[in-house]
């Protein structure tokens, strides 16, 4: 199942940014800019749902200089990204967090996350999950399981799932917290 390059070799440390289909995903370009400013080279892996209009894919590819990955490569294709030095998931949805904790690797994004902990690299998550969803017992168990695997969590973000996205007053999504977490010793 492994789909990472075994060679590394990037001059700068390589950061995987996994993007899920939450309303705040449109802000991921700011995370990429901040990561590059801190010396990371960035490759983006998005869930298939996130690729359907949740963020500006052209802007992301222009900044990273690499195609966004969302589907598995074919067996004959070279691995497009070097191995990661760190992985961040931002924003992380209820769906992806639960699948990751359960080991249900049905998208490249979740498969990458399932593998990341075993690589021994720092993994940080910025959940964007509304309070009603976050009260589901499966979600609480998923967080406990992932924390037990050493995954680093930012503060929960209530997020939104529809019209609330348009309303004012929602808190800022603290994108750079993900970078602080992976750089923490
Ligand atoms: C406009 C919009 C905003 C959404 N925001 C969120 C969100 O903040 N958090 C969340 O868990 N799901 C949110 N969803 C639902 C997810 O997109 C949905 O559960 C999807 O299956 C997640 O797929 P993924 O985890 O593979 O990215 C939103 C859906 C829409 C249409």
TrEMBL record:
Pfam families: Flavoprotein. Transmembrane segments: none annotated. It comes from the Bacteria. One of its GO terms (molecular function) is FMN binding. Residues 17-146 form the Flavoprotein domain. One of its GO terms (biological process) is coenzyme A biosynthetic process. PANTHER family: HOMO-OLIGOMERIC FLAVIN CONTAINING CYS DECARBOXYLASE FAMILY, PHOSPHOPANTOTHENOYLCYSTEINE DECARBOXYLASE. This is Membrane protein.
